Amino acid sequence: SAFSSVAHICRDVNYGWLVRSIHTNGASIFFICIYLHIGRGLYYGSYMFKETWNIGVILLFLVMATAFVGYVLPWGQMSFWGATVITNLLSAIPYLGDTLVQWIWGGFSVDKATLTRFFAFHFILPFMIAGASIVHLLFLHETGSNNPTGLNSDPDKIPFHPYYSYKDLLGLLLMLLLLIIISLLTPNLLGDPENFTPANPLITPPHIQPEWYFLFAYAILRSIPNKLGGVMALLASILILMI
């Protein structure tokens, strides 16, 4: 089963525990970088580069989708119930909702068919992200980027190496240091204890909650009593970047 395969990777595969720890905590580091990137983009007015910005928002959706389907794969309690709750939100769509949910589930509940297709999505989506990232860069190179002063960058241009290469390397090393510290010292700090229990459709966890990087969206979803209203607010919390 999917759950025991995780135990097998961590116990029996050479350095499997390390690969898993870096993979799961690397996602958290990745989202820290993404949110910092969006924040500086808002602060410095990068939304004026419309094509670059809109592809960036599409990239955010793709990354969030990849993280969501990936979180389901270990098939623990929070994986199973997270998948059930979030996919079930599609039933809020008038007329099509119930059919759509069953189509995504591949049956009448989250089951092996759902797990198999989520595994496929978790593999395919990063390639789509890589492709969209190239288009993101392509449009950025059409205009050039901006700077904290908001003025033309041409008079300030200096050689990329060694100045920017060392500056970027420092940031990279600091993020890698943070990743290594978390992965080696507190690998389960950001995870959910419920995921140490195999998925059981008969027992609901006392608190269904996502990983920290989706908490803002989930809090907005749960704060609105109406199902469709909550779903619309959740989408709006990300789509507001398009305005």
Automatic annotation (TrEMBL):
Gene Ontology terms for molecular function: metal ion binding; oxidoreductase activity; quinol-cytochrome-c reductase activity
Pfam families tied to this protein: Cytochrom_B_C, Cytochrome_B
Cytochrome b/b6 N-terminal region profile domain span: 1-149
Residues spanning the membrane: 22-43, 55-73, 79-97, 118-139, 169-191, 212-242
SUPFAM superfamilies per record: a domain/subunit of cytochrome bc1 complex (Ubiquinol-cytochrome c reductase) (SSF81648), Transmembrane di-heme cytochromes (SSF81342)
Broad class of the protein's primary localization: mitochondrion
Gene3D superfamilies assigned: Cytochrome Bc1 Complex, Chain C
Cofactors, names only: heme b
Superkingdom of the source species: Eukaryota
Keyword Transmembrane assigned: yes
GO CC entries: mitochondrial inner membrane
Comment on bound cofactor: Binds 2 heme groups non-covalently.
A GO biological-process term: mitochondrial electron transport, ubiquinol to cytochrome c
Keywords on record: Electron transport, Heme, Iron, Membrane, Metal-binding, Mitochondrion, Mitochondrion inner membrane, Respiratory chain, Transmembrane, Transmembrane helix, Transport, Ubiquinone
Topology in the lipid bilayer: Multi-pass membrane protein
Subcellular location(s) of the protein: Mitochondrion inner membrane
Limits of the Cytochrome b/b6 C-terminal region profile domain: 150-243
Family recorded in the similarity comment: Belongs to the cytochrome b family.
Biological function: Component of the ubiquinol-cytochrome c reductase complex (complex III or cytochrome b-c1 complex) that is part of the mitochondrial respiratory chain. The b-c1 complex mediates electron transfer from ubiquinol to cytochrome c. Contributes to the generation of a proton gradient across the mitochondrial membrane that is then used for ATP synthesis.
Protein name: Cytochrome b
